[in-house]
Specification:
Number of helices of chain A: 6
CATH architecture of the largest domain in chain A: 2-Layer Sandwich
Largest interface: A-B, 56 and 55 residues
Order of helices and strands of chain A: HHHEHEHEEHE
Strand content of chain A: 25-35%
Radius of gyration of chain A: 20 Å
Helix content of chain A: 40-55%
CATH topology of the largest domain in chain A: Alpha-Beta Plaits
CATH class of the largest domain in chain A: Alpha Beta
Number of domains of chain A: 2
Oligomer: homodimer
Shape of chain A: elongated
Structural class of chain A: alpha+beta
Strand order of the largest sheet of chain A: 3-4-2-5
Largest sheet of chain A: 4 strands, antiparallel
CATH superfamily of the largest domain in chain A: Lrp/AsnC effector binding domain/regulation of amino acid metabolism (RAM) domain
Distance between the termini of chain A: 16 Å
Amino acid sequence: MEEIDRRILTLLAEDGRMSFTDLGKATGLSTSAVHQRVKRLEGRGLIKSYAAVLDYDLVGLPLTAFISIRPIDPSQPDDSPERLRHLTEIESCWSVAGDESYILKVRVGSPADLEDLLARIRTAANVSTRTTIVLSTPYEGRPVG
Amino acid sequence: MEEIDRRILTLLAEDGRMSFTDLGKATGLSTSAVHQRVKRLEGRGLIKSYAAVLDYDLVGLPLTAFISIRPIDPSQPDDSPERLRHLTEIESCWSVAGDESYILKVRVGSPADLEDLLARIRTAANVSTRTTIVLSTPYEGRPVG
DNA sequence: ATCCGCCGGTCGATCTCTTCCACGGACCTG
DNA sequence: CAGGTCCGTGGAAGAGATCGACCGGCGGAT
């Protein structure tokens, strides 16, 4: 039961476009049964969405970096995520334990773009930054679960 | 031209299951034209795959962490990514500039699981580790581009 | 200038897949 | 046992994917 749902999640995490027919063959269920299960998983929120996975080198954003930020004035309310949300170069924002308060993951086209982005981050959120450049990506976004 | 391809990529990054019909309406092209373009984008590798986006809290892996690793013996060949590939808790592995050589992003169910995973990472790759716990995720995996 | 070939588009036919509905069995409960 | 719920199956209707035939613009070669 639960076992089948987990298998469906694994299959869809690897191929988000797999048809219900194929999911049925892979799980031993009828197309309709799989359809119901997937809709239920979507409704419960276990499946948040479906996305195409892009090659950012080929798309023209070959430079990835992690930017750790910490507030310059710790007495200010910490709403950095909202202050930074409009910067589309920021792919992800995690609140973390440790010396810094957030880690951002960004994709840009060039070092110059990164320099520009850093300036915008600092002014928008009033933070200091520490940047770690990604040299290569052995693997990324593998399905866990 | 190129403009339309970029728009298609943006749309599919947000909704990887959007139908060719809808993509056509959104771009002003016929279904077939969009179909051809998407197949070409897949063939060229700009679209690497499609994936379901899961809610890892609900899936039973509520604990996310970043683990920075550095080799204990710098004279050894550095094949950490391969040595760690079999650990399915590791979602991503980036080679980075800086004090550490790689950053890993991992998903586990509990602090005990994390402790166990750290031990396996250290022995598998002969590295020392520095772990940063994720407290919350304001946003993640937003489409850039 | 004309012809030719290529690229990228539309249109239409066909086949698959999605989606919905009716139905049936297992199980629990009063 | 009757009634309800949960999950499953099967089938029908419609929507979407896929493929081939055809067309027009554009650049290069004759």
